[in-house]
Amino acid sequence: MTESSGDQHAKHNARMKRVQAARAKMQARRTIERGLLIVHTGNGKGKSSSAFGMAIRSLGWGMKVAVVQYVKGSWETGEKNFFQANPDLLTFEVMGDGFTWDTQDRAQDIAAAKAAWERSKELIMNPEYDFIILDELNIVLRDDTLDIGEIAEFLKQRPLEKHICITGRNAKPELIEMADLVTEFEEVKHPFKAGFKAQKGVEY
Amino acid sequence: MTESSGDQHAKHNARMKRVQAARAKMQARRTIERGLLIVHTGNGKGKSSSAFGMAIRSLGWGMKVAVVQYVKGSWETGEKNFFQANPDLLTFEVMGDGFTWDTQDRAQDIAAAKAAWERSKELIMNPEYDFIILDELNIVLRDDTLDIGEIAEFLKQRPLEKHICITGRNAKPELIEMADLVTEFEEVKHPFKAGFKAQKGVEY
């Protein structure tokens, strides 16, 4: 970085003033306020952790948050440890029973997913909650463990005053179509491929 | 979803057993364990919230976490509210002073960014900390408010027992090159474009 002269600073500051004005104009056009249907998908890392980060943001505004985890039931995870050690913070329910390659029992997977979805509907309909995270729901939809038709139908009728965030790779097109905010998490570089083990705090 | 027959279930379960075996083999090849240099970049939403979610994971494992926010100083955010209301959880330092289009003072931006970087170096070198988040550092690097050369040089010598996560769009190629884990957050659908205001708990 070269030392900026006073001239360069004045130019920069004038440009920033124009950017600020343009942003103010843009923001004035954004008037809709209601709960968002959010989808985190893609093959990259960070879909669930980003949802947990939004939970922290929401808690910081005094909102009430619930998480339903669809597929990590049998694992010990940092988020499970944290939220179970701080039960006053939010409602955290682990309904799945590990990934299906651990259970190897499709009938049991379907039963667990159905129970998780019933609980999710209750939480979505409960006016106390402002933010609902359905973690890895996309995975059980992708595998047809739950039926996308039924879930899309329910979400169309959802109460619009709360946010719902659905995570997991391979989100169904029906869900992307109806969502307000969709981010694709794209893997650029992953430590697994360089021979790293899954790391505490990062992967789980 | 059609009712699965016993045959279909048996087939599924056998396939899952093969997947499980393949995964076990793959995991056995992953032997490296050390702190990761993580970069969250791209134009999509979720880069910072994903870092905060990893903070939650790390806290769940009893790790010590520090966050330095480079550019959100003057804003009220959910994460600031939450971490300041729960000061025992982690070290949270807000060093930036709003985005540059709010300050319109490049000299002040440079001074604030330099102070944030000095503090970041202390936290990285402090053996007490296991996870350091440098939130929106990419932005001040993109704008040459800080010099990528100096920062890359320091990061090459970093202590390898801790994770460092750097967020912000337009990550410098030098940083992507040296990182262990890079995710590109790609915007698929953003509510701003449909006329939504920034929503509490989601955007801030």
UniProtKB/TrEMBL annotation, chains A, B:
This protein's pathway reads: Cofactor biosynthesis; adenosylcobalamin biosynthesis; adenosylcobalamin from cob(II)yrinate a,c-diamide: step 2/7
Q: Does the keyword Ribosomal protein apply?
A: no
Q: Kindly state which reaction or reactions the protein catalyses.
A: 2 cob(II)yrinate a,c diamide + reduced [electron-transfer flavoprotein] + 2 ATP = 2 adenosylcob(III)yrinate a,c-diamide + 2 triphosphate + oxidized [electron-transfer flavoprotein] + 3 H(+); 2 cob(II)alamin + reduced [electron-transfer flavoprotein] + 2 ATP = 2 adenosylcob(III)alamin + 2 triphosphate + oxidized [electron-transfer flavoprotein] + 3 H(+)
Stated EC number for the protein is: 2.5.1.17
Q: Name one GO molecular function term.
A: corrinoid adenosyltransferase activity
The answer to whether UniProt assigns keyword Nucleotidyltransferase to this entry is no
**Coarse class of the protein's main subcellular location:** cytoplasm
Q: Name one Pfam family in it.
A: CobA_CobO_BtuR
Q: Where found in the cell?
A: Cytoplasm
Entry keyword set: ATP-binding, Cobalamin biosynthesis, Cytoplasm, Nucleotide-binding, Porphyrin biosynthesis, Transferase
Functionally, this protein is described as follows:
Required for both de novo synthesis of the corrin ring for the assimilation of exogenous corrinoids. Participates in the adenosylation of a variety of incomplete and complete corrinoids.
Its family remark reads: Belongs to the Cob(I)alamin adenosyltransferase family.
Please give the name of this protein. Answer: Corrinoid adenosyltransferase
Species of origin: Parasphingorhabdus cellanae
